[in-house]
Design goal:
single chain, 2 helices, mainly beta, elongated, six-stranded mixed sheet, two-stranded antiparallel sheet, 34% strand
């Protein structure tokens, strides 16, 4: 069963609130479909109220298993992330259809409550790389035989590109 971490804003102590917890999340809650938790997510947060603004500072850490997007091998992905956020009351949210450039970084709480579990999950999801790699040097799978290139079992000869692409290769190489 999930532990609730709802902060009642009107009940917060004047000096703020310090929490330290180990949270269990379900894998389907993550944006990375191949991710599997190897341990609970450890969270340390400090929450304080200044006027109607809620300041949340914290750090989370966990270990996940991800699948490399090149070689499809599972690998351990340690997560350690700090966050420093400000939440405003929902009634200060901009009315209308869209958000302006200034509104995009603002976050809002509802009914004088802040769900820290939701906040931590959002911060955890922001730590995932666009393309998980077991190592930056991972060569992936052979496009011909499907074997791992790093294992040396692939002896396929990859046909070089024709001469019409040589200038393009030079252009791409010069940009990197």
């Amino acid at each position: 069963m999930e532990e609730q971490l709802i902060i009642e804003i009107d009940r917060m102590p004047r000096e703020g609130l310090r929490l330290e917890r180990d949270l269990d999340f379900f894998t389907p809650d993550l944006v990375e479909e191949s991710a599997v938790f190897l341990e609970p997510t450890h969270v340390e947060v400090f929450v304080r109220l200044v006027g109607d603004e809620v300041y949340v500072q914290g750090e989370l850490s966990t270990r996940l298993s991800l699948v490399c997007s090149r070689c499809l091998a599972p690998f351990e992905f340690p997560v350690r992330s700090r966050f420093d956020l400000v939440y405003l009351p929902e009634d200060l949210a901009p009315a209308g259809e869209g958000l302006g450039d200034d509104d995009i970084d603002r976050m809002f709480y509802r009914e004088r409550r802040l769900d820290l579990r939701e906040l931590v999950l959002e911060q955890l999801n922001l730590t995932f790389p666009a393309k998980p790699l077991c190592s930056p040097a991972c060569e992936g799978l052979c496009a011909v035989c499907g074997e791992l290139i790093r294992d040396g079992r692939c002896s396929c000869l990859v046909k070089e590109t024709g001469p019409r692409f040589e200038k393009l290769k030079i252009l791409v190489r010069d940009k990197t």
